[in-house]
Specification:
The chain is of the alpha+beta class. The protein has 8 helices and 11 strands. β6 (about 245-250) and β7 form a beta hairpin. The model has no long low-confidence stretch (mean pLDDT about 90).
């Protein structure tokens, strides 16, 4: 369990405030990378963007195998509030060979930096930070951002490593979660192989995925989210998938998912009356594109864990009931465009509409 702000020292509170602010800035950039830029490219090429059907955002969605869409840009990024020590290198593969520095980046074929490499660009506060991050997102595996510890008492965060592989086995991740939720006490197979297999499937459900439909990058991301529960400070995992066409965030807030959807104008007109927004203001602040019947919008869905996916109050062992859902929708929001910085997200109830 991560420490709350009330349990932190003053300096730690300052660090967390900086981390949360920078995470918000990072998230805005990742939304642009995952949705706004690919959408613009599709429009320029006369290609239809692969929108997400709202039903796909429901927990325990039965959709299984699907194709990858070339119009969507996949990536995987971890942002840590603190610094990962050498003890984490066993399962999070970061070392000198994949540290963000010129000689390592030069080994990556076809990578194009926006300007000549300068090591200071690794730091979040530098203007060139996102220019450096952007091409590294295309390198396979994970990009790691974490606190830089070279200057004592400095709250600096840096892009430290790229091509970071997550090597923690799925069975170990499932065992860790099952112990946390008190479905087992010792090891994954203590109640038999079938029970262990079900717990591994529920691990995917806990993180909003389907165990059969989830590809390698998304699997690595949810395993990283579970493993980083052991890390000091907060950790946030982002994964954009070319198959699901979503950007998923795992953090201390739980599971959150972004998707570009088409929302019918009849529903939007009712929404505008509810929130007293003019159609012109809505178009300027929220609409990415439109046709005769629909608006193209960025939707964010937040999920809560049900009582079956939370540790029991009495701390006693309990028996797994696979049919009970571990995740429920807690919030749906239409997000404003990047330039609309004074506009608030608009609450909606859309993904369960028929």
């Amino acid at each position: 369990m991560k420490n709350s702000r009330f349990e932190l020292s003053h300096n730690e509170k300052v660090r967390r405030s900086i981390y949360v602010f920078l995470r918000d800035e990072l998230e805005r950039k990742l939304q642009t990378v995952a949705f706004h830029e690919p959408y613009k490219t599709c429009r320029e090429r006369g290609v239809t963007f692969p929108y997400v059907d709202p039903a796909e955002l429901r927990p325990r969605n039965k959709r299984e195998f699907g194709k990858e869409f070339s119009e969507v840009r996949p990536f995987f990024l971890v942002f840590c509030e603190d610094h990962l020590t050498e003890a984490f290198q066993k399962y999070v593969r970061f070392n000198d060979s994949n540290k963000v520095r010129k000689e390592n980046i030069s080994l990556v074929p076809d990578i194009r930096l926006h300007r000549s490499f300068n090591e200071t660009a690794r730091f979040f506060e530098k203007d060139a930070f996102f220019e450096l991050l952007d091409p590294l997102l295309d390198v396979d595996y994970c990009v790691l951002l974490q606190r830089d510890t070279r200057v004592k008492n400095a709250n600096r965060f840096a892009l430290s490593h790229f091509h970071v592989k997550i090597d923690w086995p799925i069975a170990d991740a499932a065992e860790s979660l099952a112990k946390e939720l008190r479905y087992i006490s010792k090891n994954l197979y203590e109640k038999g192989e079938k029970y262990a297999e079900t717990l591994q499937q529920k691990l995917f459900e806990y993180y909003g995925c389907h165990h059969q439909a989830t590809g390698g990058r998304r699997t690595a991301a949810l395993i990283a989210a579970q493993y980083l529960k052991f890390a000091p400070g907060l950790s946030t995992v982002y994964v954009a998938s070319a198959e699901s066409r979503t950007l998923t965030r795992y953090s201390e807030k739980g599971v959150g998912r972004y998707a570009l959807i088409q929302m019918d104008k009849a529903y939007i007109n009712h929404l505008l009356e509810t929130y007293a927004i003019t159609p012109e203001a809505f178009r300027q602040s929220y609409v990415i594109g439109e046709n005769d019947n629909c608006f193209d919008l960025l939707l964010f869905v937040a999920y809560d864990h049900t009582e079956y996916a939370l540790p029991p109050f009495d701390g006693k062992l309990r028996l797994l009931k696979p049919d009970y859902s571990w995740l429920s929708v807690s919030q749906e929001l239409i997000l404003p465009l990047p330039h609309a910085q004074n506009s608030r997200p608009l609450p909606v109830k859309y993904i369960y509409r028929n």
